[in-house]
Amino acid sequence: MAAFEDGHHAQAFPSFGSERMGAPVVSYCRIRDEVIRSREPVLSPDVVIVQDPTLLPIMDVFSGLQPDGYGLVNSAKTLEELGLAQLEERSLPGHIITIPATEIALEHLGRPLPNAVLLGGVSALTSIVRLQSVLGAISGRFAGKVGEANQEAAKAAFRLVEEMKVDNA
């Protein structure tokens, strides 16, 4: 919805394994300026968002990431602590980062739901969608206090990533 608000075409879909429950879910989102016709999985992403860092040792979640691509990992640990030092070294400076999205969500929502936090973070990291569009999408999906709390969580992540960008400049 945030991409639509910014005038882009967008498509999002999950990919599930054959397991019934508890298996990792890979989701894809395409954002383009022109109509999107492909329904294929994204094999060469421009951005990878890792909501569950426990997947890092068992899946190559960054496989196919474009050389100038971005990565946002939900973790309070450093990239080195997560075993991603080589990825960081071969990426553009500041393009692969971690943020404590679950902790930010707990602070603002009282629950470990990092989705809005990660959206705010990726907005700051990539500028693919504006923060205002992310906030509009959140308010369109969640009303009242839940929406407000998710918006505050997204804004907190946006500010954190903006500060990280300044520190790395």
Task: Describe the fold and architecture.
It is a single chain. By secondary structure, the protein is an alpha/beta fold. The protein contains six helices and five strands; from the N terminus they run αββββαβαααα. The strands form two sheets. It has a three-stranded parallel beta sheet, with helices on one face. A two-stranded antiparallel ribbon has the order 1-2. α3 (101-109) packs antiparallel against α6 (144-168), α4 (115-126) packs antiparallel against α5 (131-141) and α5 runs antiparallel to α6. It is globular and about 40 Å long. The two termini are 31 Å apart. The model has no long low-confidence stretch (mean pLDDT 91).
Computed CA radius of gyration, to the nearest angstrom = 16 Å
Strand line-up in the sheet with most strands: 3-4-5
Q: What structural class do you assign from the helix and strand content?
A: alpha/beta
Number of separate helices: 6
Q: How confident is the prediction overall: mean pLDDT?
A: 91
The residue ranges in which pLDDT falls below 50 over 5 or more consecutive positions are: none
Largest sheet features: 3 strands, parallel
Helix content: 25-40%
What characteristic shape results from the CA principal axes?
globular
User: Proportion of β residues?
Assistant: 15-25%
Order of helices and strands: HEEEEHEHHHH
**Oligomer status:** single chain
How far apart are the first and last residues' alpha carbons, in Å?
A: 31 Å
Total strand count, please?
5
Produce the secondary structure layout.
Blueprint: H1 2-5, E1 9-15, E2 26-32, E3 47-50, E4 70-74, H2 85-90, E5 96-99, H3 101-109, H4 115-126, H5 131-141, H6 144-168
Parallel strand pairs: 3-4, 4-5
Antiparallel strand pairs: 1-2
Helix pairs in contact: 3-4, 3-6, 4-5, 4-6, 5-6
InterPro entries: Oxidoreductase_gamma_subunit (IPR051626), PorC_KorC (IPR011894), Pyrv/ketoisovalerate_OxRed_cat (IPR019752), Pyrv_flavodox_OxRed_cen (IPR002869)
Domain Pyruvate/ketoisovalerate oxidoreductase catalytic: 2-158
GO molecular function, one term: oxidoreductase activity, acting on the aldehyde or oxo group of donors, iron-sulfur protein as acceptor
